[in-house]
Amino acid sequence: MENTKITITIIYDNTAWDKNLVSDWGFACLINVSGKSILFDTGANPDILLANMKDLKIDPSSVDDIFISHHHWDHTGGLATFLTANPVPVYSPVDFEIPGQKAQVSTCKKLQKIHERIWSTGILDNTEQSLLIEQDGQVTVVAGCSHPGIEKIFNAARPLGKISALIGGLHGFHHFELIKDIDWVCPTHCTQYINKIRSLCPDKFIEGGAGKVIVL
Ligand SMILES: [Zn+2]
Ligand SMILES: [Zn+2]
Q1: How far apart are the CA of 78 and the centre of ligand 2, in A?
Q2: C-alpha distance from residue 154 to each of 11, 42, 165, 195 (Å)
Q3: Neighbouring residues of the ion ligand 1, judged by CB less than 5 Å
Q4: Which of 94, 122, 159, 189 lies in the 20 to 30 Å Cα band around 113?
Q5: Buried residues in 192-216 as b, exposed as e (16+ CB within 10 A)
Q6: CB 178 within 8 A of CB 186
Q7: What pLDDT digit, counting tens, does each position of 62-120 carry?
Q8: Which CATH class is domain 6-215?
Q9: Cα 136 to ligand 1 centre (Å)
Q10: Do 3 and 197 form a contact (C-beta atoms < 8 A)?
Q11: What are the sequence ranges of the domains in the chain?
Q12: Against a cut of 0.85, is the pTM above it?
């Protein structure tokens, strides 16, 4: 029987949900779906990334792939160090090379399936891709900084189903009507209007921060 459970664990974030973890500007989370373990972004500082993983009892060697939302320092800072220890395939919105690294890089140009139930929106606005998780005709969107804007990201995700959840950095997102029909939202990292989102939709608001574990 298919294991339909989805687990999203925030490893690196501007705030700490679990006070034993280090908070720092940046974002990384681990996504476990259908037996795959995907590291979404790598934070800013490799030491913090690895220390928080250790505290969360996430073994780096258990990671199957890395998904880089976009090439900003606060999302790629841990990448080179992580790949040195564990040279897993990398899904990136643009071509790039890390000197001395042999990790295989796949560039996601458009909506593309990565694994069973896991997709990339493909690069949007020449900067960023978001990760999409399918579950019974519904889609959970995982965003790094949402530089292309939530409307564009949702439009790219919609072919997979109804958008039911949103987690990640939402930057200056303020078109709040876009999230009125989703089941839950976890605005974190660079999101400017976290308190506004919390007050507008307290029933669907999930607080982020390093150490937060969301099981669907
Ligand atoms: Zn960014
Ligand atoms: Zn960022």
Answers
A1: 13
A2: 24, 23, 10, 22
A3: 72, 145
A4: 189
A5: ebbeebeeeeeebbbebbbbbebeb
A6: no
A7: 999 999 999 999 999 999 999 998 999 999 999 988 777 778 999 999 999 999 999 99
A8: alpha beta
A9: 30
A10: no
A11: 6-215
A12: yes
